[in-house]
Design a protein that fits this description.
12% strand, 368 residues, 11 helices, Formate/glycerate dehydrogenase catalytic domain-like protein, Rossmann fold, 2 domains, alpha/beta, single chain, binds nicotinamide-adenine-dinucleotide
Length: 368
């Protein structure tokens, strides 16, 4: 039997510095008998040398199309658009199972090449929970961006471009410095606090020095009474981290903000959930996704009232590429170790079944 292997491809999406395999998880796979090929990639947060030092074999950037077809290719984001057939097995986020734009042409490439897609978004444990997700660091980074915006806004300014941080410690110390040394005195409310993103947001607020009593943590029980909630207007930063599944009463509205007038405390809303264009968005006070270049969108307020802004960036973990990759990859590792048994290991057989279903739909849609 051939030695089990993975081929870590480079990421071609702009600003994407994260990696599906890190030097840490590559070493664990190598120790378990795997061979790991790593494409050289200057964009990745981890240096090529870090992979080489743990025993990975470095290969040329973007050389996976000529890799032997029995080696599974692992990456994070979508492959660059192309019509080229895909003969390999790919493990990645492909964003083509929910009828997203271009979904059937992506799957048609697998049909033509005979390859298989295991979509990372749909690798789930026996209870249906995703085995690996980036939520924690989305919440962590979102809360940090919220604190930065609050600090600047207090001085009458507007938050400028955000750049990925080298590591978590650098982010925490930058946020503390911008808040004058500590976040003590700032008050925040996190809704969805028991989830992945919510736990990350709470963790950031603790690390920048908010008092525990000033980190208000809400989940299903607290919102059951139905919004809108005055409590949101009575904190400095509100971070929404819920997983929205249906229409629920609004959490906060424009009328409510206007009615609170000059006494409003709320200055920044971070919508980590980012259900921006979803008709059920419980925060109907903004309508665009913001970006690292323009992180905030102002909420128009009446003259004399304090300023207010919303952060609605939909790729927040990119701000913390090292830790986000380490956590995601560590969570994925048990499934990767089981990959040689993918014909019988449930996490992989389920993912392949879903792929076959979607492939069938694409074949029909594309008249193949
Ligand atoms: N902006 C980004 O970069 C980014 C990155 C990752 C995830 N997300 C998004 O963040 C959201 C949350 O993801 P997650 O992985 O943390 O989900 P999760 O399932 O781990 O957590 C969601 C939490 O929300 C709670 N919740 C759901 N409805 C609620 C309500 N009405 N009131 C109060 N609490 C409620 C749940 O009980 C749960 O604790 C998802 O929409 C996800 O797509 C955004």
């Amino acid at each position: 039997m051939a030695q089990p292997s993975f081929w870590l491809r480079c990421e071609k999406k702009e600003f994407e510095r994260r990696a599906a395999l890190t030097p840490t998880t590559s070493k664990q796979l190598i120790d378990a008998g795997f061979k790991i090929y790593v494409e050289r990639d200057e964009q990745r947060i981890f240096d090529d040398a870090e992979y080489e030092a743990v025993g990975c074999e470095l290969v040329e950037n973007n050389s996976w199309p000529s890799a032997p077809t029995h080696i599974p290719i692992i990456g994070l984001k979508e492959l660059p658009a192309s019509d080229a057939p895909l003969p390999h097995t790919h493990i990645q986020f492909a964003h083509c199972y929910k009828q997203q734009a271009g979904w059937s042409s992506v799957l048609a490439r697998f049909h033509r090449g005979g390859g298989t897609l295991y979509d990372l978004e749909f690798l789930a444990d026996a209870s249906g929970r995703r085995v690996a997700a980036f939520g924690f660091h989305a919440g962590f980074a979102g809360a940090a961006a919220g604190a930065l915006a609050h600090a600047v806004q207090k001085k009458g300014g507007k938050l400028g471009k955000l750049e990925p941080y080298e590591n978590e410690a650098a982010m925490v110390s930058d946020v503390k410095a911008k808040l004058g040394g500590s976040g003590k005195g700032v008050k925040a409310l996190v809704i969805g606090a028991l989830g992945r993103c919510g736990r990350g947001a709470v963790d950031l607020f603790r690390k920048i020095g908010l008092d525990e009593d000033d980190i208000v943590k809400w989940d299903m029980d607290e919102t059951a009474k139905g919004g809108p909630f005055q409590e949101i207007l009575d904190v400095d930063i509100f971070v929404n981290c819920i997983y929205l599944t249906s229409r629920i009463p609004f959490f906060v509205t424009k009328d409510q903000i206007d009615a609170d007038g000059a006494s409003r405390r709320l200055s920044v809303v971070v919508d980590v959930s980012c259900d921006t264009t979803n008709p059920n968005n419980p925060i109907p006070i903004y309508s665009i996704n913001t970006t690292f270049s323009e992180p905030t969108v102002p909420v128009p307020v009446e003259k004399g009232n304090p300023p207010m802004s919303v952060i609605s960036i939909d790729h927040l973990p990119t701000l913390l590429p090292r830790e986000a990759s380490e956590q995601f990859s560590a969570d994925l590792l048990p499934s990767l170790l089981a990959f040689p048994d993918r014909q019988s290991a449930r996490v992989w057989t389920d993912a392949e079944k879903l792929f076959r279903e979607k492939l069938g739909e694409a074949v029909k849609a594309e008249n193949l």
